[in-house]
Amino acid sequence: MNFAEEFKRRIFEINEKNIVDSSLDAFEFQYKKCAIYQEYCNYLKINPKKVKAINDIPFLPIEFFKSHTIKSGRWKESKVFKSSGTTSTGRSKHFVKDLNHYQTSSIQNFEEIFGSISAFKIVALLPSYQEQGDSSLISMVDYFIKNAADGSGYFLDSEISDLLENKEKKLLIGVSYALLDLAEKKIPAHNAVVMETGGMKGRRKEMTRTELHQVLRDSFGVEEVWSEYGMTELLTQAYGRNGYFQFPKWAKCLIRDINDPLSYLEDGKTGGINVIDLANIDTCCFIETKDLGRIVDNTFEVLGRFDNSDIRGCNLLI
Q1: What interhelical angle do 35-43 and 19-33 show, nearest 10?
Q2: Does 85 score more than 90 pLDDT?
């Protein structure tokens, strides 16, 4: 078994005690095996022998997934995830070597927070993602539906009144504009986890996450609304309630100084979000996003995007 396959096998054993060593192992592997990442590190004049801590590791700007094929090693992809086609600058592509690895890590992440997926009926409102058909979100929800309770699936808002009102345990997951369309009907969502994935896609006026959650709480009669933070370039999702996110133990959020991408800020200060996603061992585990955020009490907030970056369909703008 090669390094990447063994690494994937043990990511679920990663914790606060060994995530530093695991990240350094991943860096060493990807510096050697990912040509684009190595070229970027060399451009920054990074000596890999001097990378001894997480803060020493360079993070690959997310734009590289638009312009290059990011792979650590040579292999044939089983799937290509693409970002939403909402911009004129092209779509990001994430080449996935092992789709089963993505599905397994996604469902384990979900179940650590919410319990067995088989106990839920999945009610998915993701029309724009379904139309494109090649998003990581659709791939994840497809797999959830296969493992969830009978009757799970994708629905139009006109089809789900009875589903929301019955007493079955359910996950109502949807893009923001679709959830707002449904919320106008004021149908109580009994025994439901309500989860938004962000994204107005030009269909509605942008609003803050706080405003969005207030509307959804009032309309569906739930005490809290969950959010999913994911993107094409990552294989791991962060989940949060009331706007505060957490990754599972094999992923980590860091906040970089927007004026110095190799410096990091203390908790509570706003900067650029960097993500360590050790599930990305086949591509690149160290991603410099264009989202702004801050760390608060071991969680992180997503506060918006850099002014000069694209609007990404998967993220709620503030």
Answers
A1: 100
A2: no
Separation of alpha carbons 227 and 101, rounded Å: 23
Q: Is the dihedral of CA 144, 92, 2, 45 positive or negative?
A: negative
Q: What is the pLDDT of residues 119-158, one digit of tens each?
A: 999 999 998 777 777 899 999 999 999 999 999 999 987 7
Tokens of 144: 């959830």
- Measuring CA to CA, how many Å separate 74 from each of 29, 164, 239? 13, 47, 32
DSSP output for 246-277: E--TTEEEEEEETTEEEEEPPTT--EEEEEEE
How many of the other CB atoms lie within 10 Å of CB of 218? 11
Number of Cβ within 10 Å of residue 172's Cβ equals: 27
Q: What residue type is 240 in one-letter code?
A: G
Give every CB contact of residue 96 below 8 A, 6+ residues apart in sequence. 77, 78, 79, 80, 81, 102, 235, 282
The CB density around residue 210, as the number of other CB atoms within 10 Å, is 10
Characterize the bridge pairing of strands 286-296 and 271-277: antiparallel
Q: Residue 311 — very low, low, confident or very high, per pLDDT cuts 50/70/90?
A: very low
Provide the pairing of β-strand 121-125 with 170-174.
Answer: parallel
Q: Which of 58, 109, 91 is nearest to 233 (CA)?
A: 91
C-alpha dihedral, 106 to 110 to 116 to 119, nearest 10°:
-100
Query: What DSSP string describes 132-160?
Result: H---HHHHHHHHHHHHS-TT-EE--GGG-
Give the pLDDT of residue 203: 66
| Residue type, position 99, single letter | L
Pairwise CA distance, residues 316 & 318, whole Å: 7
Q: What whole-number distance in Å separates Cα of residue 279 and Cα of residue 102? A: 8
pLDDT band with cut points at 50, 70 and 90 for residue 200: low
- Pairwise CA distance, residues 19 & 102, whole Å: 19
pLDDT digits (tens, 9 = 90+) for 12-53: 999 999 999 999 999 999 999 999 999 999 999 999 999 999
